[in-house]
Amino acid sequence: MPEHIIQRGNNQQVIFTCDTGMKAYVAWLKDYAVEFEVAIHAWVLMSNHVHLLCTPGSNTAITSMMQALGRRYVQYFNRSCRRSGTLWEGRFRSCLVQEETYLLQLYRYIELNPVRADMVSDPADYSWSSYQSNALGKGAALKTPHPLYLTLGKNAKTRQANYRDLFRYQVEGELLDDIRKAANKGLVLGNERFIEQVEALTGKVLKEGKRGRPFGWRKTKG
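Request: output the structure for the sequence above.
Response:
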């Protein structure tokens, strides 16, 4: 089942100071994704946080990948910046994602992060996300296309064109609130029936508020 992952710098501190650090992070992410059998579908590296959309091959795959990656990158960052101590804001945050309703919305949300942050006006202008690969066909060894992405067209050119059409509008309003709440609170991003099915399987309460309104409305940064 796909998961949306967020890892932030402690107290919103910068975790990437240059392209070299981003290159190292992506390379190690790829290595550990292969080692722990995690399929990476979409990503964005921002100055003080990271978003990933991925599907694990086992229940412990994502935790193992993120722990190994986090330790490796902290060692590199501390050595490069001649510092010591923690870098991350505790454990990464994550939420399960209902594929047919929200998966492609998560692709958009993740890859539009630099646009929402006013870093670029077009996601194609940002090098440290999966947009150039998913929308423009740029090679990316890190990426494993999700089966739902592959349904966008019979060939790569058609898929990329249809994918670009998804970005004609920003992710905003209730959808934006739902995505942020689910990830920040460790809930589930899906409809009522999907949430109830996951709760039955896990034995955990994975929604807030009344039934039919699982994610609330309070905005948070993300």
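The beta strands are 3-8, 38-45, 49-56, 93-97, 188-189.
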